[in-house]
Amino acid sequence: MAAKSDPAGLQPRLQAIGKLQAVLKGDAFMPLGAGELADARDRAFANRLVTTALRRQGHLNHIIGAVLERGMPPRSGSFEAILRIGLTELLFVPDQAEHSALFLAVEAAKRDRRAGHLAKLLNGVLRRAQREPGLYENLTPAQLFPDWAVARWIEAYGAEAVTGFAEALLAGAPLDLTLRDEDPALIAELNGHVVTADTIRIGTRDKPVAELPGFADGRWWVQDASSAVPARLMGLNAGARVLDVCAAPGGKTAQLIKAGYQVTALDKDATRLGRVEENLARLGYGAELVVADGTDYQPAEKFDGVLVDAPCAATGTFRRHPEVMWQRSSRDIASRTGLQQQLLTNAVNCLKDDGVLIYSTCSLEREEGEDQAHWLLKAMPEMENFPIRTKGDSGFDGAVDANGWLRLHPGMVAPGDMGGTTDGFFVARFRLRRVQE
Questions:
Q1: Architecture (CATH level 2) of domain 10-139
Q2: Where do the domains of the chain lie?
Q3: Which of these, 226, 296, 352, 396, has the minimum number of CB atoms within 10 Å of its CB?
């Protein structure tokens, strides 16, 4: 609750500053809830400020580098977060009054004993940005991303694709849902349209996800169009036993159940597996839930299929998690490849003869996608490539390469959509060769 001495509009900005400061220290961004800021309009505005600051982080870095000649002051409390929120409101939220942005940024600094002595500096920097449009008018799309990522992505996808990445970053991610059952009336009620298969994308919404039609009675679950692809590729007969490794939060588990498989959902984190259980219960689905490490899990009976949606750098999710790019480095990517290989090795050990293995990551990095698929075929000669067909298998026909592997990136337009994009994703499919008698 705002103090009586607080000027109007300060509280949502203070909340935004606190959220952004936590993200700058390495936390994932979680939007403000009603328990943190009761007024819905204030809450929406605060979340908009943080989200815009995160999407514009690369541009803000360049602006701050130009206006702070001595760099960020040390031991300055929330000064950096205040500055970023202030610049965001001034430059990238055009429907706000500039004088309010300036005044309330300075007021926010005065509320922090470690940043208060920098209020004059803050005011000067913001006013300079206000009067010198050259500081931001010539920024490029590539400057929205870390240099290490841009170099990799240009090599992998080309400069034009990276421009598309920037457009997708600023546009943000739409809400994609997977339907439990075919339901044209529900699609219409949600103001949605089919992207591919049972994935629908909904239009403008003015309600939280949990208040949308069909949520409470389990008629759909949230799942990006790209994330919905891997489970669809299993291609087994109904009743087949399938293991979902690293199952949380449960979207792929739900898809496998919907396909008619007997599913074992595995996760080493009991709390995360509890979320899977809650999500399945809402949908009216059931699965065997096992708390275990996917690198050494040994089932009593082997499976017809195994899905490994592996932990990764998650750089393909920047439309909804823009902070992830700035919390990663090339070294982080290298550190995860060993874990992915351990998961794949044990997944093969969990397969029956002629069983199907699907490997996927929400990463844009080849080391976590194509390179791992090549590694698997070389390291485990008992596995053979089971190509995804270029037409019909995935719904993203143009994204299947010569190996039969699917590579999605945010510069692509999702099928069935009017200009919308999708998360970055890699999917490969393999089969364990039948043992000859």
A1: Orthogonal Bundle (1.10)
A2: 10-139, 176-432
A3: 296
